[in-house]
């Protein structure tokens, strides 16, 4: 069984907070490629930003997600990813019409967890400049992309972070 679990879904849906909770519980986690790219680009004056050069951003996210998978291969146990390769490929495909998803393959656990749109907690920031409507469109693309690649998607309930972590671990058969 593949121990690489993706937590994807709507921007601003609480993924990063959830990953922090799983990390606090002793699980390996991998931060979202997009956030890391935005931080790097902003720090260096780069242009591969989703609001400036979204195609370059998506291509960097694909490369980073592949690198993350390579690095995680050396780890033992479950690894939880804040987004991943499918997210980046779906974004590139949306932008360019390239069949980017066709080249992704199945590299993660068969069960992918999606954070649904949650307007009550959605917040923009320096790295998340899009509004909730754009985030919902993204969620809808991902809710189709993952099953199209053979993944089972499970929506994470809108509950407290500890309960959300318990939900994921229970669905995977991992002792909380």
From TrEMBL:
Residues 5-164 form the NadR/Ttd14 AAA domain. InterPro entries: NadR/Ttd14_AAA_dom, P-loop_NTPase. Pfam families: AAA_28. Gene3D superfamilies: P-loop containing nucleotide triphosphate hydrolases (3.40.50.300). This is NadR/Ttd14 AAA domain-containing protein. It comes from Methyloligella halotolerans.
């Amino acid at each position: 069984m593949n121990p690489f679990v993706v937590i994807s879904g709507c921007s601003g849906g609480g993924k990063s907070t959830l990953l922090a909770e799983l990390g606090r519980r002793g699980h390996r986690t991998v931060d979202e490629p997009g956030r890391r790219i935005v931080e790097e680009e902003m720090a260096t004056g780069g242009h591969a930003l989703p609001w400036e050069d979204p195609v370059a951003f998506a291509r960097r996210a694909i490369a980073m997600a592949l690198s993350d998978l390579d690095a995680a291969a050396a780890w033992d146990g479950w690894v939880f990813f804040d987004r991943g390769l499918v997210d980046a490929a779906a974004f590139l495909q949306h932008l360019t019409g390239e069949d980017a998803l066709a080249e992704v393959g199945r590299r993660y656990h068969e069960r992918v967890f999606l954070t649904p749109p949650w307007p009550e907690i959605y917040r923009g920031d320096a790295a998340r400049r899009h509004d909730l409507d754009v985030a919902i469109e993204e969620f809808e693309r991902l809710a189709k992309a993952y099953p199209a690649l053979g993944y089972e998607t499970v929506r994470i309930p809108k509950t407290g972070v500890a309960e959300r972590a318990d939900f994921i671990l229970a669905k995977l058969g991992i002792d909380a």
